[in-house]
Design a protein that fits this description.
3 domains; 10 helices; 5 strands; alpha+beta; 305 residues; SH3 type barrels; 43% helix
């Protein structure tokens, strides 16, 4: 049986397979200028009077945010609108806004200074403080001095809003020129106002007895120790001599209790409360509590009339 003959391929020229049409890349412009928008050629519409007013009002809101905060804090404190959730204003500000103990007071003081400067400055000039640090050096000055210092600071800043450092430098120069006598006397009862003094941090509202009077500062004896405070960091309670003697005796009792039982949290709570109550008397309940704690720790402190 004969084998089938294999078919031979014809020597025909092969035709190339049809290739798929390739995707042509997007041609880049020859130069960047081909797609650059001529900003100058674009017409920017002029701002209307209403838009200009809106811009000015919004700018002032941004600049005076610290002022609005200070005014709001004053109302919250004065009306005790924190009382439903917190016992003290300081605790409320810390939990609600994350403020340190002195921050709300700095903002409130700054708002008072801002109001004073606003009365003197021409509103058309619009040269008013934009943050709390710019007015902090002015807090302890008289209103008339605040206005003069601010105007001088604006001048030194070239007609712009001055920095806090410029304001502080002017205040320091004034203090160097005018030596104000220390208004306090030994035995006087004063309240500590730390403001921007880090050495007195956490002592805001502490009352104490002036034991030494220097040229620009006083030594104040409080329930938990002695502190040196500048004149501007103190405020006299302006008590009668008899009331001062009561406060001096109370201070001795609190200090003695602090030495004996200061680490007791309940005792510390009592000391903190009485150490900030700048009043020349104790309520009936306060007197009983203090006497009971003294007896608990074996302290015999007889009142002297």
């Amino acid at each position: 049986m004969s084998q089938p003959t294999s078919k031979r391929r014809k020597n025909t020229p092969t035709t190339p397979a049809k290739s798929k049409p390739s995707l042509k890349p997007v041609q880049e412009p020859e130069s960047a200028s081909a797609v650059t928008v001529d900003v100058e050629a674009v017409e920017v519409p002029e701002m209307t009077e209403e838009e200009q007013r809106d811009r000015l009002n919004l700018e002032r809101k941004v600049e005076r945010a610290f002022y609005e905060a200070g005014k709001a804090l004053m109302e919250l404190r004065d009306r005790r609108l924190y009382r439903s959730t917190h016992k003290t204003f300081e605790e409320y500000c810390k939990d609600r806004f994350g403020y340190s103990r002195r921050q709300p007071y700095l903002l409130m003081d700054a708002a008072v200074v801002f109001d004073n400067l606003k009365e003197k400055c021409d509103p058309l000039d619009h040269i008013l403080p934009t943050n709390e640090r710019q007015v902090r050096p002015l807090i302890n000055l008289k209103p008339s001095q605040q206005q003069k210092v601010w105007q001088q600071a604006v001048k030194e800043a070239g007609g712009k809003v001055p920095s806090g450092r410029i304001v502080q430098n002017i205040v320091d120069k004034i203090r160097d020129r005018t030596s104000v006598p220390n208004p306090y006397r030994a035995g006087e009862i004063c309240v500590i106002q730390p403001k921007d003094n880090p050495d007195l941090r956490g002592k805001s509202g502490y009352w104490g007895i002036v034991t030494h009077v220097g040229q620009y500062s006083c030594t104040v004896k409080c329930w938990d120790g002695d502190y040196t405070a500048k004149v501007e960091h103190l405020k006299s309670l302006e008590l009668l001599d008899e009331d001062c003697r009561f406060m001096q005796q109370l201070c001795e009792r609190l200090r003695r209790l602090h030495e004996v039982a200061g680490r007791d949290e309940a005792v510390d709570w009592l000391l903190q409360g009485l150490g900030k109550q700048g009043k020349p008397y104790l309520s009936a309940l306060q007197a009983k509590l203090l006497a009971a704690v003294e007896r608990e720790y074996g302290i015999d402190f007889k009142s002297k009339k």
